[in-house]
Amino acid sequence: MPSELERYQEMRNLERSGEPRPAKGAGTGPLVFVAQKHAARRLHYDFRLELDGVLKSWAVPKGPSLDPADKRLAAMVEDHPLDYAAFEGVIAKGEYGAGEVIVWDNGTYSPDESGKLLFDDRDAAQAALRDGLKNGKISFFLRGQKLKGSFTLVKTRRGENDWLLMKHRDDYARPGHDVLSEERSVLSGRTIAEVKSGLSTTLLVPSSTNLGELEGARRAAFPGFVPPMLASLAEGPFSNPSWVFEPKLDGYRIIATLRNGEAALWSRRGLDVTDKYALLVPPLSRQPVSELVLDGEVVALDELGRVCFQCLQQYLRSSGIGAKGSQPPLIYYVFDVLYLDGYDLRAVPLTGRKTLLGIILQVSDSVRAVDSFASEGEILFEAAVKNGLEGVMAKRSDSLYESGRRSKDWLKVKSMHSDEFVIGGYTAGESARASSFGALLLGYYDDARKLKFAGHVGSGFDDGSLTELRKKLDPLRIDVSPFSEAPQTNTPPTWVRPELVAEVKYGERTQDGRLRIPVFLRLREDKSPSEVRRTEIIAAPSASGVRTTPDPGSSLLEQLTNPKDGFTLVMEGKRISLTHVDKILWPQTDAHPALTKRDFLKYLAQVSPYLLPHLKDRPLTLSRYPDGIQGEHFWQKHWGHPVPEFVETVTISEEKSKSGEYLLCQNLPTLIWLGQVADIEFHTWFSRINPKPDFDDGEKDVNRLLDRPDFIIFDLDPYIYSGKEAAGDEPELNREAFARGCEVALWLKEVLDGLSLAAFVKTSGKTGLHIHVPIVRRLDYRQARRAAETIGQFLMQKHARDITMEWAPEKRSGKVFIDYAQNVRGKTLASVYSPRPSPEAAVSAPLSWDELRKVYPTDFTILTVPDRLKATGDLWANILMAKRDLGKALGIG
Question: DSSP label at 393?
Fold first, then answer.
């Protein structure tokens, strides 16, 4: 621990204050800054800059300003630990600085006294800051969400610790603007008043903008050009809380790179087109970064300010050279950041990349960020079409950037069908077209690299485009058809080398793949013929965000109305034989009639869009009740028999060098098959076989992946008896016990909030609660268990009368037992949305923290949960996006 932090510890009792202990070592990546709003005895702002493993700190009574005319007094105070950059909450009454704290702004910074930014060189940046502090004047560039641009701190003669914080005049200065009116935390969205009132919320944005701590960021050399990620085509507009939507712009896809102040622009094929877009180079060169790779679209505007592809083509034909005022306005609309200051960001979830882009991008008249909108894709689509745009781009919020690949995580939603096709020939023209051509012959490449005929297009041309196209086609003439099967034509064809790509709109495709009512739009010189494939049209995702699932009103539910006790289901091209569907699994109670396997299968069909994402890639332990919950029950780790061809399995190393084959539930047919074999409960591992996003795609060792969990788990079991239990029985569900469990869960959340760890709560489906804390997969199970035990012991010390961690059941009576021992490789808990073998047919249901004390476990059953999901959606849909680095939070690993 740096000696500079000794004063920090001497001034406060960290056990009581709730502030972080010095734990974190030196950071990585660009240096960080934080501005915290602090309602102590007097409201003020704490401004902190990272240097040499600590946060150099100043108290700014009137807060920072973006107006260069403002000179704000800044009193230098004791150094704070780096962990303080994520601290938000309440400092206990009676402690130094008692009051509420929020992270009002945060980001990264670089000294800029020399005119050169040092975001990629920590050593040089820290050396410059040391010199500035010694000389009493530091100049630095902030990349925050509220504070941006160049600032200075100047020491005054008033006192040893008195400085002035001022904004330099630059493109980010905003004279007269009160930036302090933006009063909410950049981490949680809370105000000081909401923190004071006790409002607690899960942090769903990174607690630090330090690239070295950002989930998925990888230290890497500057890549230069990066092949762009490509989108699939959706069948129509949709709305979905797990997706973001952007207007689809009609221009050319461009990758922009910046290094050492030199900007370059690249076509999607990797060609250097910097000279063609020379107007964009100056604003890109001024971006406040050391190294940068952006993805975006270059568009041109017509005289009315509308996006105009023809204007862009005319600009490029003229080589971009002309008299001032004769060129159409060019704009580079940026929608993604792929590399920044020494870090590859392609494995960072999209929302994280979008947050960074909003912080770092210096916008101008010709460089802008594409607006994105959460959830409401249909509204944006309608607005886009009304304003003359092609449609929208839909992107999964958690999608990673898959360079050079066409992904179903990005979808184009167009107002009309259009696609690119390779020109393989043309037919002879007649009458007015005798000197040009009649129609273009179009094709696409299949997986065997054969050019397949897709149809012909003879409309959409004017005299100019006919003449221009004929000039381009003549040098490409060949004697042999380039198509794998020569198409039949009404007039003699002329074959050409397949080197030109045309964009064509059409009504639909026939069964044999031919285009109906095609209309030529333009040539696409930015697209390579080799990448033209037949585009698969993707069904619009359901409102829950699952990728391949039935609609609750689909044929699956209709099939389950079959009155027979045994029949065959057909779904996704698979056949599943059902037997004994009218066998009772849950007996009749006062609350519901007897529930059968048919009822169970209907439940699975309805909740599959929400359940499948939580089962995916996780080994299962089956909990089977062939004769219902009152009959024989057995656990089954290994199936031991041949499984249907649609069921995936994984072989896992177990004790004493043995291996076992576990089932995975990767698709809807598998889920329904598990229902058929009466696997009432879905018990999943806390680790996954999928490396994304914590590991490189090259990590193929399944056992290494499964050694590192996505969560730490706290299983809260109230041992408060109703008095009706038989001797030796476990406590039954009762309202007093559940209320006590809720109270302990909220205490636990307070501790987790203080560590900047997100917490998600669900009913167990029986008497207790499960708390899942999503973590970056850098710790193994042994370390995760130790962390859970440490947190549990800390909470138990504060509430010893109410909480126990004793293993002997007789020592738990009257208390809530915190079971941390679930955090072991191969241990399982009932998944979210899993039914339980209780008389009520209860379901393990996720809760919002606000409703925790207002509900009861029996509110959530296989009869009620489907309707709840229609109203609330999946409260855990983004759980893996809320991961935190547990090792850094607790100083372990």
Answer: E
Cα–Cα distance measured from residue 610 to residue 832, given in angstroms and rounded to the nearest whole number: 9
What's at 378, amino acid-wise? E
Taking each continuous run of H as one helix and of E as one strand, the counts in the chain are 17, 46
Same fold, 543-683 and 685-832+876-893: yes
Question: Bridge partners of 421?
Answer: 502
Q: What is the 3-state secondary structure (H, E, C) of 490-549?
A: CCCEEEEEEEEEEEEEECEECCCCCEECCEEEEECCCCCHHHCECCCEECCCCCCCCCCC
Identify the CA nearest to 332 among candidates 252, 412, 271, 223: 252
Contacts 24+ apart (CB under 8 A), 360-364: 360/143, 360/287, 360/288, 360/289, 360/292, 361/287, 361/294, 361/334, 361/337, 362/171, 362/172, 362/283, 362/286, 362/287, 362/288, 364/171, 364/283, 364/286
pLDDT tens digits along 648-684: 999 998 866 678 899 999 999 999 999 999 999 999 9
788: left (phi over 0), alpha (psi -120 to 50) or beta: alpha
Asked if residues 261 and 115 have their Cβ atoms less than 8 Å apart, the reply is no
Superfamily of domain 543-683: DNA primase, PRIM domain (3.90.920.10)
- pLDDT (tens digit per residue) in 793-851: 999 999 999 999 998 888 899 999 999 999 999 999 999 999 999 999 999 999 999 89
In whole angstroms, give the CA distance from residue 263 to residue 243. Answer: 31
Kindly list the domain boundaries of the chain, sorted by start residue.
3-213, 230-247+376-414, 250-369, 417-538, 543-683, 685-832+876-893
Please identify which of the residues 37, 148, 248, 412 carries the catalytic annotation.
248
pLDDT value, residue 727: 85
Kindly give, in sequence order, each residue whose CB lies less than 8 Å from that of residue 643, ignoring residues fewer than 6 positions away: 649, 663
Q: Nearest Cα to 266, choosing from 393, 275, 313?
A: 275
Q: What dihedral do alpha carbons 432, 434, 440, 441 form, nearest 10°? A: 140
- Spatial CB neighbours of 133, under 8 Å, sequence gap ≥ 6: 51, 56
- CATH code: domain 230-247+376-414 is 3.30.1490.70
Question: For residues 106 and 288, what is the distance between their CA atoms, to the nearest angstrom?
Answer: 16
Question: pTM for this one?
Answer: 0.57
pLDDT at residue 260, rounded to an integer: 87
Domain 685-832+876-893, CATH homologous superfamily name and number: DNA primase, PRIM domain (3.90.920.10)
Q: Is 673 helix (H, G, I), strand (E, B) or coil?
A: helix
**In angstroms, how far is CA 138 from the centroid of its own chain?**
37
Strand, helix or coil at 710? coil
Measured in degrees and rounded to the nearest 5, phi and psi for residue 220 equal: -160, 155
Residues 6+ apart with CB under 8 A from 488: none
Residue with tokens 């599943």: 576
SS3 state at 235: coil
Please list, in sequence order, all residues whose beta carbon lies within 8 angstroms of the beta carbon of residue 823, skipping any fewer than 6 positions away: 686, 709, 712, 713, 781, 784, 785, 788
Question: Do the Cβ atoms of 246 and 393 come closer than 8 Å?
Answer: yes
- Token pair recorded at residue 458: 């003879």
Contact 80, 55 (CB under 8 A): yes
Task: Tell me the CATH number for domain 417-538.
Answer: 2.40.50.140
Residues 6+ apart with CB under 8 A from 686: 618, 709, 710, 711, 713, 822, 823, 827, 828, 829
- Structure token pair of residue 546: 């699952």
Cis peptide bond prior to 61, omega within 30° of 0: no
Q: Are 699 and 707 a contacting pair, CB within 8 Å?
A: no
Compute the distance between CA of residue 293 and CA of residue 335 in angstroms, rounded to an integer. 11
Pairing relation of β-strands 679-684 and 620-624?
Answer: antiparallel
Type of residue at 150: S
For Cα atoms 228, 231, 236, give the angle at the middle one, nearest 5 degrees: 160
Is 762 a known active-site residue? no
Rounded Cα–Cα distance for residues 301 and 306 (Å): 5
Task: Give residue 257's pLDDT.
Answer: 97
- Distance between CA atoms of residues 390 and 419, nearest Å: 12
CATH of domain 250-369: 3.30.470.30
